[in-house]
Amino acid sequence: MEVRVTDAAKSRLVAMGVPEGSRLRLEADIESHVSCACQIDIHMIADGAPPLAVSLGYDVRVDDATQALLGEGGPLVLDYVPLSGLVLRSPNETLAHNIQVEA
User: What is the pTM of this model?
Assistant: First the structure.
């Protein structure tokens, strides 16, 4: 499965000092919560750089297989939550699933 960050988020990463074209490793854990809200914790790590905190509100595009897993709904939004890291939020319940992506 693939998780792609939008061009706006990529531009933000470049503005934060990440060289354009850098490989980013995304690691995500999707868990089902009692509230039926899906949270995906995503850690974005550039080669040779510490983990990055990205500003609130970036849309995240996912491939068809991931979208089917998450279900139909509104856009997925990448949030930065203090002490929790980056969280991809969806209003839909989903089964526990692990995603590791290199992009």
Answer: 0.30
